[in-house]
Amino acid sequence: MISAVTESAFTERREQDWTRLDELTRVVTARGIGALGPEQLVDLAPLYRNACADLARARAARYSAPLIEQLQALTAAAHAVVYGPYAHRGQAGLRSSRARRALEAFPRAVRARWRPIALASVLFFVPLVLGAVATLRHPEFALRLVPGGTLQELAEAYAKGFSEGRGIGASTGMAGFYVNNNVGIALRCFALGIFGGVGSAFFLVDNGLSIGAILGYVASQGAGDNILTFVVGHSSLELGAIVLSGGAGMSLGWSVVAPGERTRLASLQAAAREVVVIMFGAAAMLLMAAGIEAYWSSSPLPAAVKRGLGACLLVAVALYMTLVGRGARDPGTSHEATDGRWT
To answer: Can you say whether the dihedral through the CA atoms of 171, 174, 179, 185 is positive or negative?
Structure first.
């Protein structure tokens, strides 16, 4: 009699959780883990663990066979959901969701900081164009910005063209060089922005002038088509990442200069939440650019193909930055950093 009363009380106290676990298990089995909402996903694992503990208690207390069989069936079905293929699908879906949020967070952060990034574009591309035009008219102008030996080597290299391509070993070595060189430029453009944004502005202008001078000098030596064919495939990623890094640096520096109602530290922390996202995205762009520059840009493929795909990549980057992530909220990206000020 005592055992029956004890089993009845035990069942009455725990039956609601068993029913809840059974319902969740049936939903996942029929429709997949994606059918569960956030609260249901949070509840699933604790309910399963508690049911396993209940089964152990029932066996230890020598409760009736029907109750033990019920708990065995319940825990077996829940185990298949928590640790079986449904769980793997759920984990894959979670990874996919995280990747999607990361891909959306980057362009949202760029758009949130559009003012300093627009200024960075002007500070980089205007000197680039001016440097190229000045060097085309007066090739000696490039010597004021770039060592003469470097200019001569570049002119000779691009004069040969790419009909022979590069070996895989040489391409791999150049990929490492491009990553090191380009990341170094981007980091300087970003890190020195902490000094009120002045350091970022200086390096943007300096690199824009130097790159323009190199382009103009090589073109003045008769290899303009070859260098255009080389750079068009990766320039949207490489130069875009440098501009984003400079804009992120200026944004960070300005948050210290003009903190508004916040303390300077609080303003810096608020700005950093979006700036860090931009820098991770810029780093990914530089890695992709290095791969394209090493293996694609120097390949013997026809110039028309390289230019066509380079133009397509430019359009794709522009569309990604302007359209992806609109209308979605990312909890990792704070718009409080704007606070009505230049961001």
So the answer is: negative
Q: Is 69 exposed, middle or buried (0-12, 13-18, 19+ CB in 10 A)?
A: exposed
State how far the Cα of 162 lies from the Cα of 183, in Å rounded to an integer: 25
Report d(CA 213, CA 130) in Å as an integer.
Answer: 8
217 near 142, Cβ under 8 Å? yes
Question: Per the structure block, which two tokens stand in for 79?
Answer: 């185990």
Instruction: Write down how long the chain is.
Output: 343
Q: Which of these, 102, 89, 98, 101, lies nearest to 34 by C-alpha position?
A: 89
C-alpha span between 322 and 285 (Å, rounded): 16
Cα 318 to chain centroid distance, Å, stands at 15
Least confident of 1-10, 33-42, 82-91, 228-237: 82-91
Burial of 125 (0-12, 13-18, 19+ CB in 10 A): middle
For residue 298, give the H/E element and its range. none
SS3 call for 314: helix
Angle at 317 between CA 226 and CA 315, to 5 degrees: 65
Q: What is the pTM of this model?
A: 0.64
CB 82 within 8 A of CB 45: yes
Round to whole Å and give the CA distance between 188 and 245.
9
* Domain residue ranges of the chain, discontinuous segments joined by +: 2-83, 103-323
Phi first, then psi, for residue 186 (nearest 5°) are: -65, -40
The two structure tokens encoding residue 195: 């000094």
Count of Cβ atoms closer than 10 Å to residue 19 Cβ: 11
Candidates 46, 45, 44, 57; CA nearest to 11 is: 57
- Among 303, 305, 292, which residue's Cα sits nearest to residue 174? 292
Vertex 24, ends 19 and 26: CA angle to 5°?
A: 95
**75 C-beta neighbours (distance < 10 Å), count:** 23
CB atoms under 10 Å from CB of 172, counted, come to: 12
Higher-pLDDT residue of 273 and 277 is 277
